[in-house]
Automatic annotation (TrEMBL):
Keywords: Glycoprotein, Glycosidase, Hydrolase. SUPFAM superfamilies: (Trans)glycosidases, Acyl-CoA N-acyltransferases (Nat). This is Glycoside hydrolase family 3 protein. GO terms for molecular function: acyltransferase activity, transferring groups other than amino-acyl groups; hydrolase activity, hydrolyzing O-glycosyl compounds. InterPro entries: Acyl_CoA_acyltransferase, GH, Glyco_hydro_3_C_sf, Glyco_hydro_3_N, Glyco_hydro_3_N_sf, GNAT_dom, NagZ_Beta-hexosaminidase. Residues 643-712 form the N-acetyltransferase domain. Belongs to the glycosyl hydrolase 3 family. Residues 16-341 form the Glycoside hydrolase family 3 N-terminal domain. The keyword GTP-binding does not apply. GO terms for biological process: carbohydrate metabolic process; peptidoglycan turnover.
């Protein structure tokens, strides 16, 4: 800290006053609570975050903000509170008032207008409205570069994927906010534009890009905003993992805050931490310790959103950190100076105690309404209109019917529908805003119902309107499509809500298969409108007419109606690189995919398997260990198998292999393996193989669902998971290919070794006696009827084939049964097999042990059979005993639920070999796969 800085006012000698300025806190409710009053009066809280849960109307917001400032003033605060909100527009607005607060497009919607001047005007108007209510800190602009567009929650909150475009619009917003008298805050440093999500709330999203990669793209808007005088920066709570950088939470890392942001980017404004109440952070570190770490890392203000007990924990943690000399007083004063410098720009007691409120908002309303309309009209983007269906008035007569199909989604917070729904829920429940937690699928109906009415009013004709869900195209939809003369389908983030993608493609197929009375093929007009992310169908040329609105507030949909009927000429353009190149991804090579020929390709597949095994990182165990070309060939009359290769026809070398199986008994099409030569990855070989596999499976008669991973052969039970960047990339890759990895089922294989020294755990035999079951071991097809009836209680794919294989091989396989003593009914089974069995050929882990090994496979416990874990342990315990008696020294468990309690199996001596995500989806939602 510079030594020539003027001394602080003596009023700041009170350490509690200093510490209070280092916190920003929120609270629940639309009026001042005893908790927030205590924080201001007793703990000298310096900044407050207001969210949609605090704010009702502009008038009540003004009153609430005034009361908060009055409490601070009367408590002797030397400077006013900094009071901040998220008011990004689009779908993220904390303050909504149908009369006085205008709605404007999202950041990506504004980028679609192509005008930074218009963006400046919108930002200034937005800030003027919240300043009129007494709010002095805008949580914006959003400076993230969307480097992974397909799978990100940020969506249209960012201007796009071009760092220079994001930068220019970000600076325009920042200048608009400043000129309205607001402090600014860039977010979310170092970038939320390419996060990898691992699933659990306790798993922190990860940035895997290196600092060099970030510097070339993601950091560009932050660097430029700093150069133009950004007041504050929010540092995210994400993890960072790349060469030379391993950070659990960015906002707690000196490497990120002090070195990267302060030193490398030369930022000396206020640094605000991510909310320390986030579950992953509080669970991993604790709020008290996290607060000390955040300040030590260089954060000036620590954010705690709502829990009073947690907020007190943070304050006490910071005090303890000073008492224990973990933090210096000089460090506290350094942050204090930065906070006071920012407040001097945007706050004074004169302004804080005299908010202009509704009178000023009333005078601004006409010009701001005009600006809102102009911005939305300029943002609507017609990406394609190949058959010139627009305007609709040119292709549909007044007496003909127009069909509107809309998804069931929650309305945006900044909408009258959301407000009405929230108030309705509050009136019928002791708890406010119930709909926000339940995320009721019905709640988006109000917004789209009004769109249907607006379409009907505009054309003076009949508009049919119904919704669609993950159930796909139903008979009611088909009837309406046949009846209507033109169809409009709305989608909202179809890349993350895959049912919308499948539904739209199905409707498109129906519209392209229409015939006239004379038997001639006739295309029925279809208009697809993305009302959120433009990436839904940006690259899908089969959707001939495609429009983007970038949000689905009432104002946006009013502009959409005008575009559909030709009242305004759309001028918007897709932002970023999809506008410049019309490509979401780098140009893909189209590899020739051939059907696997055993005679021709067996040796090549063996060599490819070896290359994949040899290319596995040293700290991982390849799932292909012990496998060869025969491991994938079932030759089972009840399973249709088709395998594919990408090969060099000159050298016969295989570059990639994909195995597919269609299980006729369940109508399941499975991808059982997909791997590429490590030296030839990222060349679209996997993409070409995957698309050929899906197209082939779609043609199978009776196809009902797809599955990633197979039980038979038991090599890849799903997408391999676990630690390592490659495993995380795999999950993202399959998600981008259309698999909903969020709806996955963890499964695993396990192994027990050194059976010669094995003995059952103490007390286990006694616990089995209390299970209320009798156990036996049977061999041969004569037992098939009861066993196969029993396994029908499980809907897992491949079970029937495994059990039939075992029942027809009595010399090498058996079935252990658990039966009810009173009636002999089977309540549990497991397959027992040896290395000599046909089944063992499809379990490579059996061969890889290099010692005599036995196998236990596919446990099935009847629903309602009693204590699941006890029966399972009993079946496996008897299996191990049998395997040990046969002289085996190892036992493989090759198909187990991966989310179960492993304590019982660990007690039996088992360790996990491999963990997978088994992913299933309805084949109907994957009507057509976009070509690679």
């Amino acid at each position: 800290m510079a030594t020539n800085e003027p001394p602080l006012d003596p009023v700041w000698e009170d350490m509690d006053r200093q510490l209070g300025q280092l916190f920003m806190m929120g609270f629940d409710g639309t009026s001042v609570t005893p908790q927030i009053r205590t924080l201001i009066q007793k703990h000298h809280l310096g900044s407050i975050l207001l969210t949609a849960k605090n704010l009702k109307s502009a008038e009540e917001t003004t009153q609430l903000v005034y009361e908060l400032q009055k409490i601070a003033h009367d408590a002797g605060h030397p400077v006013p509170l900094a009071i901040g909100v998220d008011q990004e527009n689009g779908g993220v607005n904390s303050l909504f008032d149908e009369i006085y607060i205008r709605q404007y497009p999202s950041a990506m919607g504004m980028a679609a207008t192509g005008s930074t001047e218009l963006a400046y005007e919108v930002a200034k108007a937005t800030a003027q409205e919240i300043v009129a209510c007494g709010i002095n800190w805008m949580f914006g602009p959003c400076l993230d570069v969307l480097t992974n567009a397909r799978n990100q929650p940020l969506g249209v909150r960012t201007a796009g994927d071009d760092p220079q475009e994001v930068s220019s619009f970000g600076i325009a917003y920042m200048k608009g906010y400043k000129d309205a008298g607001c402090a600014t805050m860039g977010k979310h440093f170092p970038s939320y534009g390419n996060l990898e999500f691992l699933g659990s709330a306790l798993d922190v999203p990860i940035i895997t890009e290196s600092l060099e990669q970030l510097s070339l793209s993601a950091l560009v808007p932050f660097r430029n905003a700093i150069a133009h005088g950004l007041d504050a920066m929010m540092v995210g709570g994400c993890a960072m993992s790349s060469a030379g950088l391993n950070v659990m939470h960015a906002c707690l890392s000196e490497q990120v805050v002090d070195e990267l942001l302060r030193t490398d980017l030369n930022f000396d404004g206020v640094v605000v931490s991510e909310c320390l109440e986030m579950e992953a952070l509080s669970h991993n570190i604790g709020v008290g310790g996290g607060t000390v770490m955040a300040v030590n890392a260089g954060c000036d203000i620590v954010l705690l959103c709502r829990s009073f007990s947690v907020q007190q924990e943070a304050i006490n943690g910071l005090k303890l950190g000073i008492e224990n000399s973990m933090l210096t007083k000089a460090r506290i004063r350094q942050s204090l100076r930065r906070v006071l410098a920012m407040k001097a720009k945007c706050a004074s007691w004169e302004k804080a105690l005299n908010p202009p409120g509704v009178p000023l908002l009333s005078t601004m309303q006409p010009s701001h309404t005009s600006l809102s309309t102009k911005a939305y009209n300029s943002s609507i983007t017609v990406v394609r209109d190949k058959s010139r269906f627009l305007p609709l008035s040119n292709i549909i007569e007044p007496e003909e019917e127009l069909l509107l199909l809309t998804p069931l989604v929650k309305p945006l917070a900044a909408s009258a529908a959301a407000r009405a729904l929230s108030e309705s829920a509050a009136a019928n429940s002791p708890e406010p805003a119930v709909w926000e937690r339940s995320a009721s699928v019905m709640s988006g109906e109000r917004v789209f119902r009004e769109l249907g009415r607006a379409l009907a009013r505009q054309r003076s004709g009949r508009v049919l309107h119904t919704s669609y869900t993950a159930n796909g195209v139903r008979p009611v939809h088909e009837n309406l499509i046949n009846r209507a003369s033109a169809i409009i389908v709305l989608t909202a983030d179809a890349n993350r809500n895959l049912y919308q993608h499948g539904f739209t493609k199905h409707v498109s197929m129906i519209c392209n298969s229409q015939y006239s009375a004379g038997g001639e093929r006739r295309e029925k007009p279809l208009v697809v409108v993305s009302v959120s992310s433009p990436y839904d169908f940006a690259m899908d040329q089969s959707i001939g007419t495609y429009i983007c609105t970038f949000d689905f507030t009432e104002t946006a949909l009013n502009s959409l109606v005008k575009v559909l009927y030709g009242e305004i000429t759309p001028t918007g353009n897709l932002p970023g690189t999809i506008s410049q190149s019309q490509k979401l991804h780098q140009s893909r090579q189209h590899w020739l995919v051939e059907i696997f020929n055993e005679d021709r390709d067996a040796n090549g597949l063996d060599a490819l398997i070896k290359a994949v095994v040899d290319g596995t990182p040293p700290n991982q165990r390849s799932e292909l260990l012990g496998s060869n070309s025969n491991s994938f060939l079932l030759h089972n009359s009840e399973v249709i198998e088709s395998h594919f290769v990408v090969r060099n026809s000159s050298t016969q070398a295989l570059y990639g292999f994909c195995a597919t199986y269609f299980f006729k008994s369940t109508g399941t099409g499975a991808i059982g393996a997909l791997f590429v030569d490590p030296q030839r990855r990222k060349l679209s070989i996997g993409h070409s193989l995957h698309n050929r596999a899906i197209r082939t499976l779609l043609q199978r008669e009776g196809i009902k669902r797809f599955q990633l991973g197979t039980r038979l052969p038991s090599i890849f039970l799903g997408n391999p998971t676990g630690h390592g960047a490659e495993r995380k990339r795999l999950r993202s890759w399959f998600a981008n290919m259309g698999w909903n990895t969020a709806l996955s089922r963890p499964v695993c294989s396990m192994i027990a070794k050194d059976l010669s020294n094995w003995s059952p755990p103490d007390g286990m035999a006694k616990s089995l006696q209390s299970a209320g079951a009798e156990f036996d071991l049977v061999y041969g097809w004569e037992y098939s009827s009861a066993v196969l009836d029993h396994i029908k209680t499980s809907n897992r794919q491949g079970l029937a084939e495994v059990y039939k294989l075992a029942l027809t091989d009595p010399a090498s396989c058996g079935i252990i049964r658990a039966k009810r003593p009173e009636d002999g009914a089977i309540v549990g089974t497991v397959v027992l097999y040896s290395m000599a069995s046909r089944l063992a050929e499809f379990v490579p882990a059996m061969k890889d042990t290099n010692e005599l090994t036995g196998g236990i496979s596919s446990p099935v416990i009847s629903p309602g059979a009693g204590e699941y874990s006890t029966l399972l342990q009993g079946l496996i315990l008897l299996g191990i005993r049998q395997i040990k008696q046969q002289g085996c020294n190892a036992c493989v468990l090759d198909y187990m639920d991966g989310d179960g309690n492993f304590d019982g199996l660990s007690a039996l001596g088992f360790n996990v070999l491999h963990v997978f995500e088994e992913v299933s989806c309805d084949a109907a939602t994957w009507t057509m796969v976009p070509p690679s």
